[in-house]
Amino acid sequence: MNTDLPITLADVTAAAETIRGHVLRTPLVAAPWLSAMTGADVFVKYENLQVTNAFKERGALNRLAALSADERKRGVVALSAGNHAQALACHAERLGIPATIVMPRTTPFTKVANTESYGAKVVLEGETVGECRAVVDDLVQSQHLTLVHPYDDPLVMAGQGTIALEMLEDQPDLDCMIVPVGGGGLISGISVAATALKPDIEIIGVQTAQYASMAAALAGEDATCGGDTLAEGIAVKAVSETAISILTALGIDVMVVDEAAIERAIYAYLVGLKTLAEGAGAAGLAALLSEAERFRGRKVGLVLTGGNIDPRIVSAITGRALEREDRMVTFRITLRDRPGELGRLADIIGREGANILEVSHQRLLLDVPVMRATTDITIETRDGAHAERIRRTLEAEGMVVTRLAPLHHPTS
Q1: At 200, is the secondary structure helix, strand, or coil?
Q2: Nearest by Cα to 189 from 250, 260, 237, 279
Q3: CB of 12 within 8 A of CB of 246?
Q4: Most buried residue, 18, 95, 178, 361, by CB count within 10 Å?
Q5: What domains can you pick out in the chain, each with its CATH number?
Q6: Residue 371's pLDDT band (cuts 50, 70, 90)
Q7: Which segments of 81-192 are extended strands (E)?
Q8: pLDDT at residue 2 greater than cutoff 60
């Protein structure tokens, strides 16, 4: 065991005592549905059940608990527009510590409101992380606030590592843990604790391809980061140097997954396990689904790190999945332009046992013959065979039917 690491098992066990009773000891639950899908023996750690719906409370509380009386009185500051902001605000309020959270001016109102609801002061300044960091530095200097970094802090890392203690207590024979990676705080704490307790366990990190900064750092390469991602919680360009040293010393591997895999994982959690996972929280499952053969026959622990996902994204992902499964299809139908035809169309679809979701009726399109009208109709079906039966029935009734491919069909 490497004894020269910036944090140790003793630091993590001390953090566990510090947060005990104040942060939920989340369940590690077997997931037979995922096991059947992947061939691995899968267990899920539900960190989305925390009060702020993410694991960040562990590290934030451990750091707050270490403040001196004078530091508590002056208060803390953080730069975050996500889960760290809410976690720090929540526990600072409980401990009576003033908290200031600096967020970019572009931060969605919901995130601002959620953070303010825990009693934190939100400062909206700057358009970029760099501009916001300058504001944080100024507050540290001018108001003598204590910076609580979201990941590059040994006490925060130790707090996050308590997840590994709980997982191995519940399932001592886990072969590996798959952990989402942003700046590196979570996987650092988990790796130190898990490998100290069980040296032969494999810890695997996961990053999104758009922000594979840790994977690049471990390979001694420069990362090219940017673009939109479902996993915004781990979209970190500058990873922790402390984390790099820990993961390098322990030989931790970091996988990279694409957006399609993350989308599939979010949907799998929703449908198969009836739970919400944000993009970052689903990254571990995305890795498992992407390389199932690597994990086949092994006992795998997934860390579902958070469930703070926009309901509109959930709706879009669900709709796309239903289209892929042929449970929601769109037909463009050319029919006679006379009274009763649209009703006849609806009647046929109803008799065939499908549900109409959306209708767009046009009679002025130039590519539609005079005396004809076109209808784009989206229907809910049981499967592809059901959809094909409906198409044949409509054609038998003299209608011209074309299946429209989804405009946003994923590439994989």
Answers
A1: coil
A2: 250
A3: no
A4: 178
A5: 9-56+153-317 (3.40.50.1100), 57-147 (3.40.50.1100), 325-404 (3.30.70.260)
A6: low
A7: 99-103, 121-124, 146-147, 176-180
A8: no
